[in-house]
Specification:
Blueprint: E1 6-7, E2 13-14, H1 16-44, H2 54-64, E3 71-74, E4 82-84, E5 89-92, H3 94-97, H4 102-119, H5 123-151, H6 155-192, H7 201-232
Helix pairs in contact: 1-7, 2-4, 4-6, 4-7, 5-6, 6-7
């Protein structure tokens, strides 16, 4: 069993190697979260020239694409915006749904981009949707099996946990092209449909670029976490510490 590997009461793992490997990703995650909130807040103070709300923009883009059946609904919370492919609904937080800012348009168009991906059967989105149940299982049961396996020196059980956790890593990686594509669609559609004027393009790009970094940070964190487990189990880097 690896030295210095300790499972404490709340399930957190204390190991110098873990923090050495994950520290850069943790810092990137903190920076990305801060940057996203700062950019959104910054351009939430800038009204768009057309005076449209985020809900107006989402509805306009959907209707132009012939997706009249896709609903646009308000959703509680801050930056809780998302597209639900199960019932084909774009859900927007109050600041986005009712907001008439550059930020509101950028976020609304991004989430609407996912609805267009769904309609066009964009394969990375389909793979991600299928991976959701397995990824959820992997992020929860995977950690438990890894921890129990290490505590009981049952390498097979830990490896099973790693395999389950790998589904979470795959989910995070497949999320990247899905989110980047939705942002590119958003920038293009907002301009092509005349929802924003040329001078507003830079603001939209800044909001969406900052948000994209949160997904990059999540992917890097999941990959490094997987590598950590593989090293501690001796799959990478030679035999396990005894």
């Amino acid at each position: 069993m690896p030295r210095r590997f300790e499972i404490i009461g709340n399930g957190a793992m204390l190991d110098p190697l873990y923090f050495a490997m994950l520290a850069p990703a943790m810092l990137l995650s903190l920076w990305a979260t801060f940057a996203t909130k700062r950019r959104f807040a910054q351009f939430a103070e800038v009204p768009n020239a057309r005076g449209m709300t985020g809900a107006d923009a989402a509805r306009a883009i959907l209707d132009r694409a012939g997706l009249h059946h896709v609903r646009v609904e308000p959703h509680d919370g801050w930056l809780t915006d998302h597209y639900d492919p199960r019932d084909r609904t774009v859900r927007l937080s109050p600041d986005v749904y009712h907001g008439r800012s550059i930020s509101a348009l950028a976020v609304a168009a991004h989430e609407t981009g996912h609805a267009l991906q769904h309609a066009k059967r964009y394969w990375p989105l389909e793979v991600r949707t299928l991976a959701v149940p397995v990824a959820s299982l992997g992020s929860n049961l995977g950690f438990i099996l890894i921890a129990v396996g290490m505590l009981l020196s049952m390498a097979g059980l830990s490896l099973l946990g790693v395999i389950l956790f790998s589904a979470t890593v795959l989910f995070q990686l497949i999320t990247l092209p899905v989110e980047f594509d939705a942002s590119e669609r958003a920038k293009k559609l907002l301009f092509d449909h005349g929802i924003i004027v040329p001078s507003e393009q830079a603001g939209v790009a800044k909001v969406l670029s900052a948000a994209a970094m949160t997904y990059v940070a999540a992917a890097i964190t999941s990959v490094l976490t997987l590598l950590y487990f593989l090293i501690r189990l001796g799959v990478l880097g030679g035999r396990r510490e005894e």
